[in-house]
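Whiteboard transcription, Tuesday session. T.W. wrote the C-alpha cells on the left side:
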C-alpha cells in the first residue's frame, strides 16, 4: 500500500534542512529526512477498511472516501 491518503492525496515530503553552522551536530550527511503522513485504519460505511490520514478522519471524510478498485 502506498503511503498516501486516498481522500486528500497527502503523501510523503522531504524535510529537515539546516544551515552549515549546525551541520556537524547532525548524523544524516545529506541533512534531509522523509516525513510520512499519519495514516490510520478507518472503516467505510460499506464495511471496508482503508488507511486515511488523521486530518481526514477528524473532518469526517472517511464517510465519503472514494477508493480506487485494485485490478
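and on the right, the sequence the group agreed on:
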Amino acid at each position: 500500500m502506498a503511503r498516501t491518503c486516498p481522500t486528500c492525496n497527502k503523501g510523503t515530503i522531504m524535510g529537515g534542512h539546516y544551515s552549515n553552522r549546525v551541520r556537524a551536530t547532525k548524523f544524516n550527511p545529506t541533512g534531509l529526512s522523509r516525513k510520512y503522513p499519519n495514516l490510520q485504519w478507518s472503516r467505510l460505511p460499506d464495511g471496508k477498511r482503508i488507511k486515511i490520514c488523521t486530518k481526514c478522519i477528524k473532518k469526517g471524510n472517511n464517510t465519503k472516501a472514494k477508493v480506487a478498485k485494485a485490478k
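Someone added at the bottom: DSSP finds one helix and four strands in the chain.
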